[in-house]
Amino acid sequence: MIRYRGKKKVLDKVKELDAFPKVPEEYVDSTSVSVTFSVITFFIVAWLIYSEVTYYLDSNLVFKFMPDIDMDEKLHINIDITVAMPCSNLGADILDSTSQSVFGFGELQEEDTWFELTQEQQDAFDAVKYLNSYLREEYHSIWQLLWKKGHGSVRATIPPRKSRPNRRPDACRLHGVLTLNKVAGNFHITAGKSLHLPRGHIHLNMLFDDTPQNFSHRLSFGNPANGIIYPLEGDEKITNDENMLYQYFVEVVPTDVEITLDSIKTFQYSVKELERPVSHSKGSHGVPGIFLKYDMAALKIKVYQERENPLKFILRLYSVIGGIYVLGSFINSVVSTIRTAFVKPNAVVRNEHFEMKKYQNPLLVPTDLEVPVDLIKQ
């Protein structure tokens, strides 16, 4: 006896291991109806899996109000304003309830420019103004899209001027980042440079009584942030009155945003606007200029994402797959039964006879043996 000393491949041994009984192929009846239902079931399951995974990744946004106890935190605010007066005739200052002057908050850069825009600049500014106006009006309908897709207020940035007018600059652009305390304050722009004193400041506007004043302005106030629409982004005021007073009353709400791979501290605000001409003879007192008075809310908003429990998601996914598979099998059985009932019996018999003849084992088929009679007699 020759012993086989060869070694089987590991893969062949693994294939021989089968813990589940298999139905022989000769007893399996594959029909076009079964194949059709299998393909349809596969695509339905794939589509449902894609829908469930997309729904799981598309998390819900939660807005939570809480007391703002971090009073030492600073707010960083971008401001960009263009006033229709030369920079030499303007003074900008901030004074809050802590009596700190502008030197404690940062410095705004002054840039001489022209208030009248070119056609290209005017078209760009009008587009930004229209888009921000639309976002403010339709915010309650599209807020989820803004937050999840990373959209917010469009910055009122004006493309650079390609040609310089043949006249002196008649406007001043003030822009920069201000670092503010979480207390009430007043940012204002008036005629005359400011003189800082130990307990405040004064504006030397008495030197400009005979100088024409025009506080027409374009304003951008806020930080670019996903999902937040700022009311004063792209705001424009035009006037021909030299003694016009513009007042903005701003209520600032600190906002902490914690989303996937991003965490920022920003703010939202609401604003009330008031404009009136200053006329002491008519009882309308005040100082012509632009005054932005802000106050901090006692509450802050925390925005974060809330996803479903992963275990619950997996269980729901398996239940969907199992349910579609069972339902597809049931419908396939019903259709196959109806189909079999309407098929002619003769065709079924001939088909079964053909299948049995096709898979018969020749060793198990009895054969007719003819033995000669003479041989039996002997």
Describe the model.
With 378 residues, the protein is α+β, with helices and mostly antiparallel strands. It is 30% helix and 29% strand. The chain has 7 helices and 14 strands. The strands form 3 sheets. Strands 1, 3, 6, 11, 12, 13 and 14 form a 7-stranded mixed beta sheet that branches. It has a 5-stranded antiparallel beta sheet with strand order 4-5-2-9-10, with no helix packed on it. Strand 7 (194-197) and strand 8 (200-203) form a beta hairpin. Helix 2 packs antiparallel against helix 5 (310-342). It is elongated, with a radius of gyration of 41 Å. The two termini are 43 Å apart.
Please sum up the structure shown.
This protein has seven helices and 14 strands. By secondary structure, the chain is α+β, with helices and mostly antiparallel strands. The strands form three sheets. Strands 1, 3, 6, 11, 12, 13 and 14 form a seven-stranded mixed sheet that branches.
